[in-house]
């Protein structure tokens, strides 16, 4: 499974398993979680398959649990022991690390429905400018909109993050101006290498390979 496809689906699968377990991931069968295993092209890996090993989850709100899952969705193997040696994962510890890195954010509502509404609105706005349907609105670090990142809104009111179009990732900004809102976007650096070569460059390379060099002598 490609990285983009995995990132677009793993949280939905984890949420489904969480709901089926009535909020107690220790009841989730291990063989179900094996479908959440994934190794990324850049060498990172996912630890979401360790759902049954989650601890300190009973007091968490839905959005906090999802943030913890996202933090485990793409990690560096060098920061964690081998999967076989992990006996438990404290979600409170994970969120504490995230809180230490995050500055104080404010927003009028901090619930899951707000996050979903923000994502839907941004999809509609960006799609209308982009000219095609986009998906997967995330922060630049890959997190869903949530109270922790102020629902992707910056201090000046600008919404900023990333979206997906097929296998390509883009960075976007939706900023308020005097006459309304302006939407800008650019290809994410992770997707630049996925672009096919330009036709002119491809033809130029072919010409360089096949063209014979002519020499003219003078007497």
Describe the protein:
It is a single chain. The chain is α+β, with helices and mostly antiparallel strands. The chain folds into two domains: 3-101, no CATH class; 112-192, no CATH class. It is 36% helix and 15% strand. It has seven helices and six strands. The protein has a four-stranded antiparallel beta sheet with strand order 3-4-5-6. The chain has a two-stranded parallel ribbon with strand order 1-2. Strand 5 (168-177) and strand 6 form a beta hairpin. Helix 3 packs across helix 4. It is globular and about 55 Å long. Mean pLDDT is 77; it is low at 101-111 and 213-219.
Outline:
The protein is α+β, with helices and mostly antiparallel strands and 219 residues long.
What is the strand content?
Answer: 15-25%
The radius of gyration is 23 Å
Strand segment tally: 6
The secondary-structure element order is: HHEHEHHEEEEHH
Biggest sheet statistics: 4 strands, antiparallel
Rounded mean pLDDT score: 77
What share of the residues lie within helices? 25-40%
Overall form: globular
Biggest sheet strand line-up: 3-4-5-6
Uncertain ranges: 101-111, 213-219
The structure class reads: alpha+beta
Distance between the termini: 66 Å
Number of helices: 7
Give the topology, please.
Layout: H1 3-20, H2 30-33, E1 54-55, H3 62-72, E2 89-90, H4 91-101, H5 112-130, E3 135-138, E4 159-165, E5 168-177, E6 180-187, H6 189-192, H7 199-210
Parallel strand pairs: 1-2
Antiparallel strand pairs: 3-4, 4-5, 5-6
Any descriptors?
219 residues, two-stranded parallel ribbon, globular, disordered C terminus
């Amino acid at each position: 499974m490609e990285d983009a496809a995995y990132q677009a689906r793993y949280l939905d699968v984890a949420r489904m398993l969480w709901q089926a377990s009535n909020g107690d991931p220790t009841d989730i069968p291990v063989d179900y979680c094996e479908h959440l295993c994934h190794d990324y092209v850049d060498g990172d890996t996912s630890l979401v398959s360790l759902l049954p090993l989650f601890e300190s989850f009973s007091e968490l709100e839905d959005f906090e649990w999802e943030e913890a899952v996202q933090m485990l969705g793409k990690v560096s193997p060098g920061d964690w022991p081998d999967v076989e040696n992990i006996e438990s994962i404290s979600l409170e510890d994970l969120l504490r690390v995230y809180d230490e890195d995050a500055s104080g954010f404010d927003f009028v509502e901090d619930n899951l429905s707000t996050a979903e509404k923000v994502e839907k609105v941004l999809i509609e706005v960006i799609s209308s400018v982009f000219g095609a349907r986009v998906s997967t609105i995330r922060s630049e670090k890959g997190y869903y909109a949530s109270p922790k990142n102020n629902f992707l809104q910056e201090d000046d009111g600008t919404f900023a993050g990333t979206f997906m179009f097929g296998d390509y990732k883009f960075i976007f900004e939706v900023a308020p101006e005097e006459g309304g809102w302006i939407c800008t976007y650019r290809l994410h650096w992770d997707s630049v290498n996925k672009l096919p070569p330009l036709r002119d460059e491809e033809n130029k390379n072919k010409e360089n390979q096949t063209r014979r060099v002519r020499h003219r002598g003078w007497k």
